[in-house]
Known about the structure:
By secondary structure, the chain is α/β, with parallel strands linked by helices. It is 40% helix and 13% strand. The chain is built from 9 helices and 5 strands; from the N terminus they run H-E-H-H-E-H-E-H-E-H-H-H-E-H. It has helices spanning 3-11, 22-25, 41-49, 79-90, 113-128, 160-163, 166-172, 175-185, 209-227, and strands spanning 14-20, 53-59, 95-99, 141-146, 189-192. A 5-stranded parallel sheet has the order 2-1-3-4-5, with helices on both faces. It is globular, with a radius of gyration of 17 Å.
Amino acid sequence: MSGTERKIAMEREKNILCFGDSNTWGYNPANGCRHPRDKRWTGLLGQELGRGWRVIEEGCNGRTTVFDDPVTYGSVRNGLCFLPTCLASQKPLDLVILMLGTNDLKLRHSATPEDISKGMARLVRAVQAMPECGVDGHAPAILVVSPLHIGPTIDRSSFGDEFGGQSAAQRSHRLAGYYEQVARQWGCAFMDASLVAQPSPLDALHMDEAGHAAFARAMAARVRQLLA
Length: 228
């Protein structure tokens, strides 16, 4: 590679796809609306990384790893159904951040933590099966993120019945171990969101502004580590 080619490669904007659910969309637990762009972790991540990085926000309320949701638009909420299209439309991608699994814990899916991790593995494999969406013929790097633990106030949350209260909270604590195994098996990076942020006690599921800020800082450090 010539000096000019090296300079162009170094200056090329790095593209990061953040593929997630309502915590990536920016659901505000205080009012059910959306946090402003500059308060959401994706927007804050872009600010933290600065020039030369493009953060692509792809969050959808209710999104699962692989489960159709007959109560809310069926396959529209199925992450696996939409991910290949998203990859193709946003390429070239340097990194894909996969943070899903909380909605899989809803009672209607009857999914164990192991089942949910298998869903995450299918998402990973979908990314790895599309090398044309990465850079220089290589599939994008992947960061598997185990989601926040469901908070202890879930029984009092408006989402409590949907998730089955403390049962879902307990199962959410078991996801990280399974997700880490998936990341190791498929050669991905791993991050446990519950170690750096917690959901608001208002609904036990979604981050407030402080949570988004803390998560963005931790994510920025992880992304630099992976793509520096």
